[in-house]
Design goal:
The protein is of the alpha+beta class. The chain has a single domain, classed as outer membrane lipoprotein receptor (LolB), chain A (Clam). Helix content is 18%, strand content 40%. The protein contains 6 helices and 14 strands. Strands 9-8-7-6-5-4-14-13-12-11-10 form an 11-stranded antiparallel β-sheet. Strands 1-2-3 form a 3-stranded antiparallel β-sheet, with no helix packed on it. Strand 2 and strand 3 form a beta hairpin. Helix 3 packs antiparallel against helix 4 and helix 5 runs antiparallel to helix 6.
């Protein structure tokens, strides 16, 4: 399948596909200060290990938000579902913005995330409603960090394996859960080298496909070291004018241990015809 990027109205199209804090620093003294020092002693090493912590955690629910801005136009795509970090698979329902004319809401797209593949249902663009579209993520120039409209939760954590610089900001809360806030910059090339086999290729593609391999981020970890929220800022060259598209992708993880059994579609249910561009 030939993949290319373009911008139409208020909707960013990548490969013909639709592509999601208030921080307080806790002052402390005595034993509290010692705990604070321990947490901030090695932020780079801490963040490079968070993907392994998620794999050990098993599964969780996830909410995603992807904000894209180019040429004065801003689009936000939201998703919600479950993800199993050990199996590297998940299911999201992605809500697209209104069509460019604002006349109607688009039907949610059901996405299945799997090692090396992205499956979508209710894709539109001439695809029958009961059929799935399969995309080989190794062919995507963004490594599927942007294309599906939601960043794969494990891939989002594996980006942090490439952390170059990081600082411990302080303590705050995410959805009522106490967390530690870190801010830094990751390098996608380094992340690809350190990533699991399933994400090594996609992250290497992203390192080449984005406008910069450096990814600024903010991440919030709970007391078990699990990611509760991570926000990446990507950029790539796209659109009719060839300008830079800025993307802010946010992933929230909660309800760890939630069952996340994902059944991939049978071959007969996958659409093999031509997909129209929107």
């Amino acid at each position: 399948m030939t993949q290319r990027q373009r911008h139409t109205g208020t909707t960013l199209v990548t490969a013909g596909l639709m592509v999601w804090a208030c921080v307080t620093t806790a002052g402390c003294s005595g034993s509290g200060a010692a705990a604070e020092d321990a947490r901030s002693a090695d932020p780079v090493g801490t963040l490079r290990r968070v993907a392994d912590t998620l794999v050990d955690a098993g599964s969780s629910k996830a909410r995603t938000s992807m904000e894209m801005a180019t040429g004065g136009t801003r689009v936000t795509i939201r998703g919600e579902g479950v993800y199993h970090f050990g199996r590297r698979s998940g299911r999201l329902k992605v809500l697209l913005p209104q069509d460019p004319a604002g006349a109607r809401a688009r039907r949610p797209i059901t996405e299945l995330l799997a090692p090396g593949a992205l499956f979508m249902k209710n894709r539109g663009a001439g695809v029958p409603a009961d059929k799935w579209v399969r995309v080989d993520t190794a062919t995507l120039s963004d490594g599927n960090l942007v294309t599906g409209g939601a960043t794969d939760p494990l891939a989002a954590a594996e980006v942090l394996r490439g952390t170059r610089t990081a600082t411990y900001v302080g303590e705050t809360q995410v959805a009522g859960t106490p967390v530690r806030h870190y801010r830094g910059v990751a390098d996608l090339r380094a992340a690809a080298r350190a990533a699991s086999a399933a994400n090594r290729g996609p992250l290497a593609s992203a390192a080449k496909g984005f406008a910069s391999a450096e990814v600024p981020f903010d991440v919030y970890l709970d007391e078990q070291g699990r990611v509760r929220k991570v926000r990446h800022r990507f950029s790539f060259v796209g659109g009719r004018s060839g300008g830079t598209v800025a993307v802010a992708s946010t992933t929230l993880l909660y309800a760890f241990g939630t069952p996340a059994d994902v059944r991939l579609p049978a071959a007969a249910d996958i659409y093999a015809g031509r997909i129209a561009e929107e």
